[in-house]
Amino acid sequence: MYLLLADAVLALHLAFILFVCLGALLALKWRWVPWLQLPAAAWGVFVEASGWICPLTSLENYFRVHAGTAAYQGDCLGHYLTATIYPDGLTRNIQFVLGAVVVIVNLSIYLWLLRTRRT
User: 72-78 long-range contacts, Cβ below 8 Å, gap at least 24?
Assistant: First the structure.
């Protein structure tokens, strides 16, 4: 059961990262999305810029340890998603660049959205 919970947290983590990076696109369809996406994006940028570890990572590792396995080993879901979320060679400079990309993408979408909705 713990291994299943760990995989669920990993999938949730990936979904959250996608929402942080591209969630502004959902605001093109639903006006309420910015109320969720902007705080999520702020949190994602903060975690990248500060070097903190996301609480979802700690929760996943907790479940993996209680399942008796090492973190991020063994199953297909963990094998493929972990490399996406935690790529080899991830440095502080790369984290800053990723945070900046998130800000630029989201600002661009929201500025475009504001401009088109005003007209």
Answer: 74/3, 75/3, 75/7, 77/7, 77/10, 77/11, 78/6, 78/7, 78/10
Rounded to 5 degrees, φ, ψ at 9 are -65, -40
- H helices present in the chain, as ranges: 2-22, 34-50, 55-66, 76-85, 92-118
- 82-113, pLDDT tens digit by residue? 677 677 777 878 878 888 888 898 899 899 98
How far is the CA of 101 from the CAs of 6, 43, 94, 116, in angstroms?
A: 28, 14, 10, 23
Q: Give the residue from 98, 96, 70, 66 showing the smallest Cα distance to 84.
A: 98
